[in-house]
User: Fold this.
Amino acid sequence: MTPTSTYRLQIQPDFPFSAAGEAVPYLASLGVSHLHLSPVLEAVPGSAHGYDVTDHSRVREELGGEAGLRELARTARAHGLGLVVDLVPNHMAAAPRHNRALWEVLREGPASPYARWFDIDWTAGGGKVLLPVLGGRIGDELPHFRVTEGRLRHGEQEFPLRAGTEDLPLPELLDAQWYRLSWWRLARTELNYRRFFTISDLIGVRVEDPEVFGATHGKIVELVRDGVVEGLRIDHPDGLADPGAYLRELRAATGADCWIVVEKILTGEERLPARWPVAGTTGYDALRRVDGLFVDEPGAAELAALYRRFAGPAGDRGGHWEATARRAAYKVVTHELAAEVAHLTGTAARICAAEPALRDHAPWALRAAVRELLIRVPVYRPYGTGADDVLTTGAAREAKATYSVPEEAAAVDVVRDLALGRLGDGPDHRAFRVRFAQTSSALRAKSVEDTAFYRYTPLISANEVGGEPDRPAVRPAEFHAYCARLARDWPDTGTVLSTHDTKRSADVRARIAVLSECPQRWAKLLADVAARAPGPDAHLAWTAWQTALGLGRADADRLGPALLKSVREAGLRTSWTEPDEAYERAVTDFTADGPAGEQAGTVELLARELAPCIRANTLGAALVHLTMPGVPDLYQDTEREYLALVDPDNRRPFTGGPPDEKTALTRAALRLRRERPEVFGSSGTYEPLSASGPAAGHCLAFCRSGEVVTAVTRLSLRLAETGGWGDTSLTLPPGRWYDGVAGGREFAGPVAASELFADRPVALLVRRPER
Assistant:
């Protein structure tokens, strides 16, 4: 069943199925049709997110178990709601004592029936699985090992023992296992299993194997067939060996009525593969375009220029987006993904050695080719595009130019042809092609989302998944074209503004976006506070003060961790693996003394001055999201003002706080969607509406199926500075139209914008039936 709207709840031990059940009456009253639950299968004990799955055959006991989930489904159904569940097919927790399948592989080695579950390169590492789980080198950790009850223990960690080895002296016992315990730092270069991005605690799962698919999807398919679950959100399909084939298998298993969306990040104008049997994406492509409507294009360019002057052009601080992203990609592919590059290089070398025409390519030349081509893939992972759109001849030419020995640059052509499937279809050829694509998505996620987005920060509201920081503004014509395409091709796709993964909630971003309309006021504020509370460096100061404006509250306990995360992810002065304690202490002190201390009042004063514009952005983005083509997903608590920073700040349990103006708007839109699905669903239409007059560009409007009109104010500060609406008007479609939020007022024909937006900066109008 296709939802009319979904509401995401972060299910966790502190908010189990029973708590979700208590929230059902309230959520039903909002007007949503489905609850959207974070992962529900068995995970590492205490996990607050559930993406570290340990057993696909069981619903997580800490959440209430299968009985609790089925009871939640019954409660939801009694209130007219269904369930959508987040499904994690790509990876499991690499925690042997909790992951039985992995435990058996480590005990029995490649002969284990579970060995086919995981992408383990048994030819590397002397035929052992590298487990980088120790806090220090093995020699220093030896005193902390013990064998009890037939298991090897190290602190709280437990590992299986190969049969017949339990009585060996410790050094021999360690050497006799199918795994090698090692210092965690060795993961970067020595890891020999596929992981999720650069997280060694999450091991990749081979769901392309029919037996593995059946074992890992049996329970979720049962829940779908029993009617407990009506929809699935597929986490990170880019990590799978063959996402298209996986989705076809999933569709066959779950049936035609199961609503399925995929967490596919689309870059720029990239399109979702039309042949995938899904309703669409989880909605990051919509997020970028909705946000962009409320960014002033010239002002954003001015902010970028101010940023370069303030933060300084050296290295990654300041500079330009493309160069910053490229440097970040080099960093990640050279360091964090060194093991993945080594695996690809080894596979390429094996192919070359076996084919006379390809011999004599030096391993270092192949390794350089792998690196140089990976960083030039223009999307997360290519699907169904021509070769020249993915690894262009221009990209190959650039890659070749990096070689100090021109003759060795021919390796680029070999690697490019292998990645594009042009050099054969043997097992190694297929393995290279798949792993190259999987590594490409990991590289882009880590280098763009988790590095460059923290290094290039002129307008941090634009730095979200799928975003384009160098082009944050979206013109109304672009938005209308996008919506028309959704209504035609993907009417049931997911749309979203806030998620568990967004670095800043929609309302935080809406506040920050106003700065694009007043870059000089921002520059003045920054000069004032920087003089009184200089940060450890200008780049951090710029980011910190924008974050403070977005959060709207001088809260060191929330600002501090978010800013520490930003400097660690950026990796310019400190990092997660190489922390600079003095610098991090300076960041914490600056946060407490500056944006969360004595200078907080300066930011709060600017926020009060900009309050009407913040209100227009917040309500405008919310209404556009709730009424545009697609199925809107509301993150928990976002039906009211929701100011949250990056995780874990945005993963706190659902509260269901007091309603506000945004709540009334949300209720009105959601109830319309639920009561009139034909207006908003796959049979509905989308028609752009154009305003006329001197301020026409400040009104974005559209009509859904001739029955509901959305109109919002955009760039309201610029509007006020140029004298307001004047004689600007919006021509409504034929008929009488009433206020769908508060009732009372009616409109027809051309309506003055000043009248339409007299009560609030947005309007939701419903066509009154003809008598």
Notes: The chain has 29 helices and 25 strands. The chain has a mean pLDDT of 96. Residues 564 and 585 are 9 Å apart (CA to CA).
